[in-house]
């Protein structure tokens, strides 16, 4: 049995991904204190809502998906109900394995994971690392579970804040660019529905090419950039406005925030 404790945006993305890839609703429990949200998830996915303590007693694998600021309270709530057979996977930004182990009084094995919301459609990217008592077998188990919603890589814990800034927050950067493209097209007179379909399909198509061609992004960009053409004119403006630096600074800010969250 798997329990998802905290079924907000990320908890739901993992839930939906797991159910879409063969996990039965009867094999998943959800602990979500917002009653309306728990009812809604039961209606849409057929999963039972239970208190976190019951989830910890009944499930041997727990996915903790509450906000980092709520994590210590959740750990304290479930700690007494854990045993050595439990595998606790936290997806919270900035919450280190040592914090997890400390508040669980070293009961169960912990895995720190950083997924992203495309898990909802089986296209997630997750990085994982284990705690001091986590065996390779337990890390394999966490990896297998998370692989059902996308790809998984193992990284040393010192890289987790950078991972969070790149792949955890990353989808938002692309939605932001999509939104800017839509608004630019609307400002130039394109009907909103047309602008949306153009931007959406362009970003999705470009992402599929990145994934399927295996080509470096520089090569893919060069293929679009005809000599003396429109793309070159656009890219010159992106460079002039420091978009490359802005992306670097944005990723750096996200990493810094992830580090701050680990300080409580
Ligand atoms: N949203 C994203 O793209 C990603 C989020 N994460 C991590 O996932 C976690 C959740 O983030 P979101 O889903 O965006 O936030 P959210 O606010 O949508 O979800 C948090 C959920 O936890 C519930 N909750 C609060 N206290 C609880 C408790 N004591 N027991 C059980 N549930 C409780 C809330 O009612 C809420 O539904 C965060 O730690 C975040 O760092 C990680 C990767 C990506
Ligand atoms: O914004 C956040 O803090 C979470 C972690 C990574 C993506 N969303």
Write up what this structure looks like:
The protein is α/β, with parallel strands linked by helices and 264 residues long. It has two domains: 2-160, Rossmann fold, CATH 3.40.50; 170-262, Orthogonal Bundle (ProC C-terminal domain-like fold), CATH 1.10.3730.10. Helices cover 56% and strands 14% of the residues. The protein has an eight-stranded mixed β-sheet with strand order 3-2-1-4-5-6-7-8, sandwiched between helices. Helix 1 links the parallel strand 1 and strand 2. The longest helix has 22 residues, at 192-213. It is elongated. The mean pLDDT is 96. The structure holds 1,4-dihydronicotinamide adenine dinucleotide (NAI) and (2S)-3,4-dihydro-2H-pyrrole-2-carboxylic acid.
Keywords:
8-stranded mixed beta sheet; ProC C-terminal domain-like fold; Rossmann fold; alpha/beta; 12 helices; 264 residues
Question: Summed up, what is this model?
Answer:
Pfam families: F420_oxidored, P5CR_dimer. This protein is of the alpha/beta class and about 260 residues long. It is built from twelve helices and eight strands.
């Amino acid at each position: 049995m798997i329990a998802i404790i905290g079924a907000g945006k990320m908890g739901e993305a993992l839930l939906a991904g797991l159910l879409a890839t063969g996990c039965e609703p009867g094999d998943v429990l959800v602990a979500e204190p917002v009653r309306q949200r728990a009812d809604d998830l039961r209606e849409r996915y057929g999963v039972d809502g239970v208190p976190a303590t019951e989830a910890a007693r009944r499930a041997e694998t727990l996915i903790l998906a509450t906000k980092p600021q709520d994590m210590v309270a959740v750990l304290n709530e479930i700690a007494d109900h854990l045993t050595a057979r439990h595998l606790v996977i936290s997806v919270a930004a900035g919450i280190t394995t040592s914090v997890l182990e400390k508040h669980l009084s070293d009961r169960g094995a912990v895995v720190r994971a950083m997924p992203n919301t495309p898990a909802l459609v089986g296209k997630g990217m997750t990085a994982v690392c284990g705690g001091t008592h986590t065996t390779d077998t337990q890390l394999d188990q966490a990896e297998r579970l998370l692989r059902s919603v996308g790809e998984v890589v193992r990284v040393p814990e010192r890289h987790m804040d950078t991972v969070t800034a790149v792949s955890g927050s990353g989808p938002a950067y692309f939605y932001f660019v999509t939104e800017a493209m839509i608004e630019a097209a609307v400002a130039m007179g394109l009907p909103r529905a047309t602008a949306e379909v153009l931007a959406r399909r362009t970003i999705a198509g470009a992402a599929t090419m990145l994934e399927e061609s295996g080509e470096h992004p520089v090569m893919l960009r060069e293929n679009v950039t005809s000599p003396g053409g429109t793309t070159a004119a656009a890219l010159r403006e992106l460079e002039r406005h420091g978009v490359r630096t802005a992306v670097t600074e944005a990723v750096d800010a996200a990493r810094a925030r992830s580090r701050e969250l680990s300080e409580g």
